[in-house]
Each structure stands twice: as C-alpha cells, then as structure tokens.
Amino acid sequence: MSASNIPAGKGPTDNEAPAKGRDFIRTIIDRHMEEGKYDGKVMTRFPPEPNGYLHIGHAKSICLNFGLAAEFGGACNLRFDDTNPSKEEVEYVDSIMEDVKWLGFDWEDRLYYASNYFERLYEYAVQLIIDGKAYVDSLSAEEIREHRGTLTEPGKNSPYRDRSVEENLELFADMRAGKYRDGDHVLRAKIDMASANVIMRDPALFRIKHAVHHRTGDAWCIYPMYDFAHCLSDAIEGVTHSICTLEFENNRELYDWVLDTLGISPRPHQYEFARLNITYTVLSKRKLIQLVEDKLVSGWDDPRMPTISGLRRRGYTPASIRNFCEKIGVAKADSTVDHALLEFCVREDLNESAPRVMGVLNPLKVVIENYPEDREEDFDFPYHPEKEEMGSRKVPFSKILYIEQEDFREDPPKKFFRLAPGREVRLRYAYYVTCTDVVKDENGTVVEVRCTYDPETKGGWSKDGRKVKGTLHWVSAKHALKAEVRLYEKLFQKENPASTKDGTDFKDHLYPESLVTLTDALVEPSLTNAEPGQRFQFERMGYFCADSKDSRPGSPVFNRTATLRDSWARIEKQMNNK
RNA sequence: UGGGGUGUAGCCAAGUCGGUAAGGCAACGGGUUUUGGUCCCGUCAUUCGAGGGUUCGAGUCCUUCCACCCCAGCCA
User: Is the peptide bond prior to A556 cis by the omega test (within 30 degrees of 0)?
Assistant: First the structure.
C-alpha cells in the first residue's frame, strides 16, 4: 500500500529550493512550534467526501496537508468524510486512494472514515441533548427554511425548540430506531436564531435518511451533518490543524461551538485557504460530474479532464503536479492560475526525464533519389541529447522516408528554415538532403517530395563546415510503425468557463477541437512495445504518453501531454498579423 | 440595509519591529544549440483597490470609501 521511497507518514520532497516566503498557514504553525504547542507535532488530515474523483484542486489540499505534516514532524490522515450515503460510492473511495498514492503520498495505517465514528457522534449528540444544547425539531424542511430568516432579518424559534430533555432523548432514540420517515424530524443545535451568522441559527446536526451507506450498510438511518461530524472527527483523530477552503470560513464558528460546548480539549483549529482555479477549465465536482454524465468527455479519466486520473492518463507526472502545487502558493485571495503554469510544470519535468524518439504526426512522403533502393542503415540514436546515461535505440534509415507535412513548403515564407524546393536541410542524426522536385496530385497538393542526400554528411555533420538551418525529424517508410495519436488541447475555449456573468452555461464553451485524433501517424519502430503509461518526447512535436487503456504492443496509441514551446508558430503568427 | 473574507505587475505570490516592492509563470529582446526544444543573459510595479491622515519615512499604522468572493441544504 505504501508508495515507494517515501519516508513514513510523509510526502516526497521535491528538489525545488524551499520557497523564500512562507505562506500564512506555515507562518501560523511556525509560531505554534516556537510556543511549543502541540508537543511540536502537527497533525493534519485530507478529508474528501467520496462522491467524485479527485481533481487538481484536491492535489493542492493533499500537498498542503501531507506537506505540512512532513515539514513539521507530524502526520497526515486520509479520512473519508462519508456522512451522506446518497451521494457516495466505493468506486470513489477506491479512486481517491489510488490518486493520493499516485501523487506520492502515504497515509500509512491512518485510513479513517467519518462513518467509523457514527456511534460516538451519536453519543456526543445525546450529550448535547442532555446539556440542553440540542433538540429534535419536527418542522418540515420548508418550515425550517421559513423560520431561518434572511441575511438581513433574524430567524424565529421553532415551536419545538423547548421540548424537554426527556422528550428529545426519546425522539432522538426513535429517530435512530427507524420509527420515522425521512424529514419527519431533525436534530438541531440550540444556538441563536438571531445570529448574524446564518449558519449559527440552530443548525441541523443529524437528519433521518433511509439510505444504504457504502460502509455501514443499513445499520443507520440517521446521519450526522458535516458541521457536526467534521470537527468531532478531527478531534477524535487528534488533528491539530484542520485545513479547508475559504467557503467554510462561516462554518468555523460552528466548528468551535460544537467542540467548546462539548468541552473537548485539546481541540483542533480550522484554517481556510483559497481553493484552486485554473484558466480554461472547471474545478468543481458538480461541473465535472456533468461533463461525465452528459458524455461530453469519455469519463473521469478523459485526458482533457483536470482530474488526477485525467492528468495521469494525459501523461502528467506526480512530480509535475506537486511542483505546480508548490509554485502556486497558499493564500486567502480568490485567484485563478494561468493554465500555462501547469503546462510549464510538466514540460519542466518531462524535459529531464522523457526519452526522445521520432514520430511523424502528419506524414509526407520523401524519396531520396540517389539512395540505393535496397539499402538500409541502422543508426544508433541517443534517447536524450544531454543524458548519455539514458542510453540509445536503433533507428533504421532507407530510401523512402516520411517527414512532417508542415516541414515542407513549396513556397516558403520568410524565416521558414525547413524543407522547400532547392533547400538543403538536415534529417536529424542522419544526412543532409536537398529538395529537387515535388510530385502533386490532381488537386495540386504536394504528395511526395524528391530529394538527394549527401553521403558525406552521415550523422548529420558536414566535413566542409557547411551549415544548414533546419533539422527535421523523420521515419523510414518501410520500418515505421503506424500509430494512433490523440492531440489534446484545452477543454474550454473560454478563460473562465464557469462564469455566468454573460448568462451562458459552462458547457457552451467546450472547445470543439479539444481532441483531434490522428490515425495515420507513423512512429519509429522502437516504439512497438511502448508500455501503457510510458512517456516520450517526440522530437520537435511534444510530449506523448502511451495510453493506459487503448495502447497495445504493435499498435500503440499516444496521448499528447503537451506541445513543446514553439517559437516558429509564434513568429508565423506575428508575420500573419502584420 | 446583516455577517464573514479578500484586494501588491497580464497570472500566481513574498513582503518580519513602519526604512524605501522577493520569486515563479507569461511576454519581449539577445546568445548557445544536430529538437525554431533545452540552457544562458537581459527587459518587464517610482508603486501596492481609491482618497484622506499620522510619521523624517507607510504596501506595512489610523480613517473613509470602492470592488470582488462566501453564507438563508435535513450537501460537503
């Protein structure tokens, strides 16, 4: 179960230099440590509700919680906040565990479920009733809403608010015993219906819900609410710093009320940070689930999804996601991170680790006129130009090759350094070739390029010092392996698709070309046995990952993780704009 | 017209007891280069939401205002 090479209870440490500025949470904990609080040990937890797949926003929280524990000599629990059986499924708990592990974090033996605490939570609720701090309300949901008041007007007490302790105890026991239907009663905290904080207006603590729970089955028909379960679960686990997102700021008062009213000490404290937003995508479970259910994507792990499983299938590395989370920082201001930073993080990692290979996405036939018909050469090319230790592979060369369509222009624009009639370019690591002629089809489209090669330039060097401006990748027609290549782009074409200010729905902004499938790409033969999940750089084209579901030996399928930075595309765009 | 938060460059984000605006991404120049990749070097906030005030000195203190986010689930 434990991810490899990770110190007990900790997360991996990336090679990044420690951030210079500390975020507000670390600053607070620094002070706690100086004051000798918590015996110098920080206890955190990552508490997902198993009602969907984890996304990169969760990765931020995971990195924070596990990271804090590691930095301050503590530990981080994985706790499923499974208090609402109607939304939760084991499929989700399994995927969450897989994703946390894959990210490189280890909760060791500290796997918990709020549902483990149902009995204790029930007892705490009974205690509140005995103390006169909770009561069973028999108003309907609608009546309760009406009694709550508004943001500017105080609420009204429920007529059931002053039931006797005995009556409350009996009612609550009967709720648990299944004597009522959903909605007949609800256990509420007796706080203040006039509180300026609406959350404090006698919040519900337990509700009746006749539903099968993925862990407790039908053992219960009443379930605790988040605000009651979360703080107590934290306390039960000895959590010191309970870190959540900003939308729970208002709930902190209730978090404290429950623990203080029950006299729990020592007790955890809640801190809130801003959730992650990224441009050109959506990061809310509600929206992601819609994309899946409406079949707008192929599933939770569609490589365009911002889910951990989607990013994994896309070819992102755990380290790249961790680095991303470190780079974005932790603060309280609502913010939207540029998707370019995420891309930068994968490229940064893959540039170091991905073996280089050649793959032609949109093939254009090239015939080397002066190369013998029956000749073949087996070149030995390094997997990484700067890392000899990564080894090499054999790449065959022959008379008929394929190059990238966009690497040839019959009428080349300025600054185009690639192949064109009369031009000499280098075929990477192989030979200099000069274009002598083209063959066109009936529509005038160039379907074949005729070249001559210079036998004196073997390896891609010329002894006479002659320079060539372009270097192209290529594959040998006879030896190339056909592959399916899936080119992924951003899922949405609008920077903030979730914004409803213009009256549109986020689904209106899906980018139609977010997936372009190429079925006739040709890759070098060394890729025949690419392992599903294996990552490569297709030289000059980008980073690609053999698809974990569809790739097969002999007929690989590659997902484009990210393109390489492309300054020619930029130059061309600039020229077109002029 | 209630309460809780937040506002530092195009995007994130540091900024200790007030001492004269870190870093990253993006962008833009230039160098190296058998990937128009990588790498390297350089440019990019006289100003910190706005206005007043205190001070020799304010992003940091006081004050007024403005903008944005969250809260009226028996969701989390």
Answer: no
